Amino acid sequence: MRKYIYFLAIGCSLCLFGCDKESNEIDVLIENPIEPESPIDIEENSDFIYKLLSLGDSYTIGESVCTTCRFPEQLKSKIEENSNATVNLKIIARTGWTTTDLKSNINLSLATDYDFVTLLIGVNNQFQGIDFEVYKQEFPELVHIAIKAAKGNINNLVVVSIPDYAFTPFGGGDVTITKEIEKYNQFAKAYCLNNNIEFLNITDITQQGFSQPSLVASDGLHPSELAYQKVIERLYPLFLQKVTN
In what residue span(s) does the SGNH hydrolase-type esterase domain sit (predicted)? Predict the structure, then answer.
């Protein structure tokens, strides 16, 4: 039996303090999954396959953390460690991407058989001072693309909230950043609630960046591996609920 999960994560990528867009990964395909050691009974079938898709920006590709530290990779590992399943993960994201950039770089031939998809996007719209109306128009368009990739099933999509980079050395506690990020998240949350789409809040995790500096990566801006671990503590149960039930 083969089951596919599209993980569509629209990560928030900040192209801050001279991030080199060309040097960042785009469209990452994970293969050769790790053999699980202590599986739980998600499916007693070693050929069981989930397809995950993550759409986003630097928060999705894990700017300034190791490849296996970013949250889509951590989700993949968590699933494989706790099941007999294999996970095929595809990431479409790049540091600095806005909603417009993500739309422009999603291949028109994107598969439509993903089992689980995450979408995390919008921080660069805010950081670059782009008119909020652009986000209001393009976020729903990206959601529709993500749903289509997730077998056309709204239940297979999770929209992830934008982290608050005000609580980093780079953000310096700027309350204006927090207010603007909140504006984006409120719109995304309301849209998701009105359309029966799962919205996962992780912003509060990143707002502990001053009290827990270990939640901030070495660049002083992006979330650390530990922060993404805390994201997975919230995201993995949703995967189990939506995909394995």
Answer: 55-229
For 73, the token pair is: 């990779």
For residues 65 and 228, the answer to whether their CB atoms sit within 8 Å is yes
Q: Which DSSP category does 156 fall into?
A: G
CA–CA distance, 20 with 236 (Å, rounded to integer): 31
Residue with tokens 């994560």: 9
Q: Which residue has the tokens 């898709």?
A: 53
CATH of region 21-244, choose from 3.40.50.2300, 3.40.50.1110, 3.30.450.20, 3.40.50.300: 3.40.50.1110
Q: Which two tokens stand for residue 223?
A: 């979330």
